[in-house]
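We treat protein structure as text, and this decision shapes the records that our systems exchange. We quote a single record here, exactly as it is kept in our systems:
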Amino acid sequence: MHDAAQPGATLNQPVLDAEVGYVITPMTPGIRLTTGVEIGLRDSPKTPVQLAAVEPFARETFPLGERLDAQPWLGRRPCTPDMMLVIGPAPRHANLWFAFGHAHHGLTLGPSPDGSSRR
């Protein structure tokens, strides 16, 4: 969800509240409030329960203004059932490498030095 900041308020960097479970971060459309990952089927309806639960806490942390989005955003993220990355050469195709299954974390959760996140 994107919200405006109240007049005079500026957010210059992301703020993570690990105890409550949300992040607020400055984005071009406004201040984004986001929560944890919800695992659901591709065509499942939105269930913004997590967002509703954390919004009051986020508003205590930062002076959020009016909502800018009519509906919470919902996106499809590539991930594997065990949340492990698939990175490495394709077993049946020369010169093809796999690099997927990163959920919404991009390359920040790339292979660890000991190779434990590799398939």
